[in-house]
Amino acid sequence: MTFLEECRQRAICQDGTCQTCGNLEQIKAGLIGCIAHDKLILPEYPPYHGNSKCPDWKRRMEENKAMKTSELVSRAHDNAVKHGFWNPAPSFGDAIALIHSELSEALEEARDGRDVRETYYEEKPDGSRKPCGIPSELADAVIRIADLCGYLGIDLEKAIVEKMAYNETRPYKHGKQF
Questions:
Q1: CA dihedral (55, 58, 62, 67) positive or negative
Q2: pLDDT by residue (tens digit) across 25-80?
Q3: DSSP class per residue in the chain
Q4: Can you give the pTM of this predicted structure?
Q5: I want to staple 105 with a disulfide (CB 3.0 to 4.6 A). Which of 28, 30, 98, 137 is the partner?
Q6: CB 32 within 8 A of CB 25
């Protein structure tokens, strides 16, 4: 096992990773970190950004708990509000169009020949690395749906459970060709 693999394994099993993206890369001998978020991760210590503890740090044990749909809705909406996307609030139609736009961006990634599981990173002027690719665009669509449900007060988990239960009672392909 290489040093990076050993550090990665120790960080994943014992201490955690960057909650934001989980990326671990070797910075230099003896150090690993999340390049995308400029966070240093040492296997024995939580990551630090400058002199303050990284606000995105979560222990792996916390991270292993699946995020509930209600938490996804809350976090997506809170983040969108914090970043000004609800000042002023878009119309319902505009919010739906933005969800469509994320799906269209996923389609454009496929049209460009990207593999459906490929994530690549775009270097930004501030030194951050933006995750790109079909998985990221599909994630953006889900995040926008969760954000809209948070704004509208929709219990998305309840709606999904109810709709899936109904769909299980429907005929093969719902009687359609495709």
A1: positive
A2: 555 555 556 555 555 555 445 444 444 445 554 544 445 567 889 989 998 999 99
A3: --HHHHHHHHIIIII-EETTT---EEEETTEEEETTTTEEEETTEEEEETTEE-TTEE-HHHHTSPPPHHHHHHHHHHHHHHTTTTSSPPPHHHHHHHHHHHHHHHHHHHHTT--TT--EEEEPTTS-EEEESHHHHHHHHHHHHHHHHHHHT--HHHHHHHHHHHHTTSPGGGGS--
A4: 0.65
A5: 137
A6: yes
Reading phi first (left if > 0) and then psi (alpha if -120 to 50, else beta), residue 55 is in alpha
Q: Phi and psi of 130, rounded to 5°?
A: -85, 125
Spatial separation of the C-alpha atoms in residues 173 and 11, rounded to whole Å: 45
In whole angstroms, how far apart are CA 4 and each of 89, 124, 147? 45, 25, 37
Residue listed under structure tokens 């930004």? 124
